[in-house]
Amino acid sequence: MVDELEMLKKDWQKQEGSLPKYTKADLYPMLLKKSSSVVKWILFVSIIEFSFWIVLNFVLDHRDANVAFEEKAGITKIDKILLVINYIALAYFVVCFYLNYRAIKATDSAKELMKNILKARGTVKLYIWFNVSFIFIGSLLVFGVAYYNDPKTFDIASPLVLIVVLFLLLGLFIGVLLLIYRLIYGRLTKRLKANYDQLKKLEL
Fold first, then answer.
1. Does residue 45 lie within any of the structural domains?
2. Is 58 part of a structural domain of the chain?
């Protein structure tokens, strides 16, 4: 048994000796490339998401049932205003993601790369919280205006029941959205965090 352990120890030492030794100069370009790739994926995903919302809104706007409901509830105007605000905000964040990608790609120092990584992660977090907040506040506004214009729009006897149902539906939708964001943007930002931690060790 002792002999087997000694043999395993020797094999492990041989493997360690055969592993490539990376210097700080070797690691920086690798981390730069990895970080640039992650931010590029964030940009691509945001463009796909932006396109998805445009297509979805286009489809909904051309459904007779939706158009009839908006006209009956008197929410056509506020719906259009919120839609324009949402498009402007999403376009702004797409531009920010692109600028973050350009900044990281053009970085020529470890400290600058660390700074740009933190900025990129911060932009993603801001983007997520904006979307969640906008959906929550926008939905409350639309339902509030619709109920004010015509309480019979939702065919619910009690306003309290309407509020409970509204919050449950919003909670479910936002929960699913956050889960999707966590699976996609969360994984990408974790990779950026790992790169940042490695850069921090190199700078020590």
1. yes
2. yes
Q: Is residue 6 part of a domain?
A: no
Residue range 155-177: average pLDDT? 86
pLDDT digits (tens, 9 = 90+) for 105-160: 888 788 888 899 999 999 999 999 999 999 999 999 988 888 888 777 777 767 78
pTM of the model: 0.80
Q: Is pLDDT of 11 > 60?
A: no
* Domains identified in the chain, total number: 1
Angle between helices 159-181 and 110-149 (to 10 degrees): 160
Longest distance between any two alpha carbons in the chain, whole Å: 86
Domain of 96? 24-203
- Does residue 15 sit within a domain? no
Residue 186 has pLDDT above 80, yes or no: yes
pLDDT band, residue 16 (cuts 50/70/90): very low
The structure tokens 């009956």 sit at 72
| Matching residue, tokens 């309407």 | 162
